[in-house]
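Per your request, structure below.
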């Protein structure tokens, strides 16, 4: 089966992710760009020997990451002028990703950060000339 069919099976609603993240209509276009940034990593995950449960967790965490990135566009409107692949790269580092909103447990944040670290390493290995230059998330100080 071609990898694109596998991706469609793995993420049947991938095309709807941008709409699910939007606060307003102008969020859909950056959301589509975020999805394009995610696709190579999603395909990479499919090509690995991860269990179905782990694949689903990574997929769900990427959906959460996309939502947080769109939220960041509203918190910091100047980010809209930057390329979305840069926004994605800068949201990640070797510690993980942005903080989950709401009442996330430490275990949920750790699991989310595991996906973000894996994605960060994937990006870093694939684009050695473009390392993230800064974090756009709040400080991790005080986190366990």
């Amino acid at each position: 089966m071609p990898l694109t069919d596998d991706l469609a099976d793995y993420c049947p609603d991938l095309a709807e992710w941008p709409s699910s993240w939007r606060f307003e209509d102008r969020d859909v276009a950056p959301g589509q760009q975020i999805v394009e940034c995610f696709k190579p990593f999603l395909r990479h995950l499919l090509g690995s020997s991860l269990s179905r449960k782990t694949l689903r967790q990574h997929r769900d965490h990427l959906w959460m990451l996309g939502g947080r990135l769109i939220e960041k566009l509203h918190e910091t409107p100047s980010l809209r002028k930057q390329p979305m692949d840069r926004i994605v790269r800068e949201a990640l580092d070797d510690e993980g990703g942005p903080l989950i909103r709401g009442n996330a447990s430490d275990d949920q944040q750790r699991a989310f950060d595991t996906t973000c670290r894996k994605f960060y390493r994937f990006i870093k290995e694939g684009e050695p000339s473009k390392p993230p230059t800064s974090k756009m998330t709040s400080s991790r100080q005080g986190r366990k």
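The first helix runs from residue 3 to 10.

Regards,
D.
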